[in-house]
Amino acid sequence: xxxxxxxxxxxxxxxxxxxxxxHIFFAxxxxxxYMQIIKGSVELYDYLDYGKEVTVGILSAGNSLVASLLxxxxxxxxxxxxxxxxxxxxxxxxxxxxxxxxxYNIGLRxxxxxxxDLFYYYSMQRIIAEKQPVSKIKGLLDYYKExxxxxxxxxxxxxxxxxxxxxxxxxxxxxxxxxVKKMEQKHMLxxxxxxxxx
Length: 198
What we know:
Keywords: DNA-binding, Transcription, Transcription regulation
Shape: elongated
Number of strands: 9
Number of domains: 2
CATH superfamily of the largest domain: Jelly Rolls
Largest sheet: 4 strands, antiparallel
Order of helices and strands: HEEEEEEEHHHHHEE
Radius of gyration: 18 Å
Protein name: CRP-like cAMP-binding protein
CATH architecture of the largest domain: Sandwich
Mean pLDDT: 92
Structural class: alpha+beta
InterPro entries: cNMP-bd_dom, cNMP-bd_dom_sf, Env_Response_Regulators, HTH_CRP, RmlC-like_jellyroll, WH-like_DNA-bd_sf, WH_DNA-bd_sf
Number of helices: 6
CATH class of the largest domain: Mainly Beta
């Protein structure tokens, strides 16, 4: 969801820059700001009990960071780190709530974003539940293809590294590398200059 920058600024939002690998928030922190990515990308991640890192999502410019939690009293259930150098536009929670109350369209767009987020989590839950690694990887690639509006039969460059794929679906990176190679041999995808095209 993207709210017009000028509208956010007129309600008191401020720009904040983060260098790559700097944390934006940690699991357990209290959500206090609506945060919209202006440039760069942010990774949402958490750790399983045995220490394995799990990527919850990777967000780019135009997306907001877990805005749904501003409507609850729950803390962040994950960490957010700048994947690249990035700029966020931050608006405090009370100002966002005032904006939502005064502008029906903003509230509707937040509702649409929450629906998209739920669709993502339902999709990921199904993908992670798959038993076969090839089904997990294919499911994730299909999801990203649909998310990017790519029609069946058309090829697109997957915007994820093998490590990110592994972190998102609970596999070891070595398994992802091996399965992607097998998928290439079966003409399910192509690899060009280490990039995956699906």
